[in-house]
Specification:
Layout (H helix, E strand, L loop, with lengths): L11 E18 L5 E20 L7 E6 L9 H17 L8 E7 L9 H17 L5 H11 L12 E5 L3 E4 L14 E6 L6 H9 L8 H15 L4 H6 L1 H5 L5 H7 L3 H12 L4 E2 L6 E5 L2 H17 L11 E6 L13
Parallel strand pairs: 3-4
Antiparallel strand pairs: 1-2, 2-4, 2-5, 5-6, 7-9, 7-10, 8-9
Helix pairs in contact: 1-2, 1-3, 4-8
């Protein structure tokens, strides 16, 4: 069903959260060339901000980006998502002309090529915002198909909470969050440290294909176990933190990322010495994470890392100082009703 898009006089605004892989097992290469995955994704409260507004007839879609450099505008996933949304909306639009052009503004707060799926999250936000701006409603199956065509990670951001990711990323199973996490206590915190070198996801998978991997299937077993424990609702915050050393090792792409960018090896060693706790990698890197019982403790760790970088005790690969942030893991929206964190 559709409504008159001129009713959307104010811009439609969406937050596009980053994701972190608590586990990432690569199960093999599929016949279509993609890799089969088993991974537990969690969204975090580090987010880009996207706004879109309807333009007058005859205009073309435009995008303005502030913040982190996201590369050439014409290649940005936001514009691709708007075009894909327009094509999918035509049957419901019900008019001879296509849905009108949109002006999009993206405040890029998530580092690029960082293993945090910022571009995929932007695409999911653009798809949702465009449909609202045009007053078009699509059924869930159609929206999922459009999102999956935009990128393997894009469908995850419609879940609104942690999820098990399988297939090439298009198979989603929403997961309950931690038992007792919403009973008034702080959520678990994550320290994120992202070197400015960037790591290409295709390059990391090529390195994995060429043998940059750890044999034995430990990441798969850890991923299966975490997903099952979350599904059964038997994990609390303390339990998750206790499992940090297992989760930090459960990323099959971490060795591949280190082949693509060898400077990540001494960088991780320096973080381990400084923090004295397990350090994992999100996605294909280069973002490294450490798990804490609370956001406040993650913030203390973030300050510690910033000071160590300034002293030269932690040296990150790349032309600039690393991005450092303390973030909260976002629980499912239905579980956080009334919770503003």
């Amino acid at each position: 069903m559709t409504a008159d898009p001129t009713r959307a006089l104010a811009p439609v605004v969406r937050l596009a959260p980053a994701k972190v892989n608590l586990t990432l097992a690569v199960l093999g290469t599929r016949p279509d060339g993609f890799h089969a995955l088993h991974s537990v994704f969690v969204p975090v409260d580090l987010a880009d901000r996207l706004s879109v507004a309807v333009l007058p007839p005859g205009a073309k879609d435009i995008l303005h980006v502030d913040g982190h450099d996201a590369g050439p505008t014409e290649d940005n996933l936001v514009l691709r998502a708007i075009r894909a949304a327009r094509e999918a909306a035509r049957p419901e639009w019900g008019r001879p002309e296509p849905p009108p052009a949109l002006a999009a503004r993206l405040e890029k707060r998530i580092p690029v090529a960082a293993g945090l799926a910022g571009g995929s999250s932007d695409a999911a936000a653009a798809l949702d915002a465009a449909l609202e701006a045009w007053g078009v409603t699509l059924d869930a199956s159609t929206r999922h198909d459009v999102a999956a065509r935009l990128g393997s990670d894009v469908p995850f951001f419609a879940v609104g909470g942690p999820a098990l990711i399988e297939g090439r990323g298009e198979q989603l199973t929403p997961l309950p969050w931690l038992r007792g996490d919403l009973a008034g206590g702080d959520r678990p915190g994550l320290l994120l440290v992202t070197p400015s070198c960037g790591v290409s996801t295709p390059a990391a998978y090529r390195a994995w294909d060429e043998g940059a991997r750890v044999p034995g299937g430990a990441a798969r077993m850890a991923s299966l176990h975490l997903a099952e424990e979350l599904r059964k609702g038997i994990l609390g915050v303390a339990d998750l933190v206790t499992r940090a050393s297992v989760l930090a090792a459960a990323n099959d792409l971490a060795p591949a990322a280190a082949v693509v960018e060898p400077g990540l090896v001494p960088f991780k060693r320096a973080l381990l010495r400084l923090l004295g706790r397990p350090v994992g990698v999100s996605g294909s890197g280069p973002t490294h994470w450490a798990l804490y019982p609370s956001h406040a403790e993650a913030q203390v760790a973030a300050d510690l890392v910033r000071a160590a970088v300034a002293r030269g005790d932690v040296v990150a690969p790349g032309p600039r100082e690393p991005f450092v942030a303390a973030v909260r893991i976002l629980a499912p929206a239905r579980a956080t009703k009334g919770d503003s964190a």
